[in-house]
Write a structure and sequence with these properties.
Layout: E1 14-15, E2 23-24, E3 27-33, E4 39-44, E5 49-50, E6 53-58, E7 64-71, E8 73-77, E9 83-85, E10 90-93, E11 99-103, E12 109-115, E13 119-125, H1 131-137
Antiparallel strand pairs: 1-3, 2-5, 3-4, 4-12, 6-13, 7-10, 7-12, 8-9, 8-11
Length: 140
Amino acid sequence: MTDPQFDQMFPTGEANDAFAQYFIGQSYLAPLAGGSVPVSNVTFEPACRNNWHIHHGKNGGGDQILMCTAGTGWYQAEGEAPVRMEPGTTVRVPAGTKPWHGAAADSWFSHLAFITPGDDVSNEWLEPVDDDTYNTINGK
């Protein structure tokens, strides 16, 4: 499943088959807390990334918080420079932003994902991140 050298404090979880169509590569999902602020640990194999997507919400809802807990990955909002994520890196993604995130080409990557509660919270999956965009930030 994961590289034995990949050490993280949260469970990797099960293969993220329910959302596989929105990822290039294999990801894993471990729900950690439910309720009004659900928290999940998402783990990406090397070079795995999710599609561009938008979290929607009203009255404070739909913001996403990503906290890297292990490995190395990338976060990029449309029109902005990519952010290298390493353990301790935290990114706030305001509702309505179009980002993608995933593992570096040569590293497993895990982050905790939180969605702020509010009204009409939803997620809209969009197109995959093309190889040219991904390879450029990975130095290929």
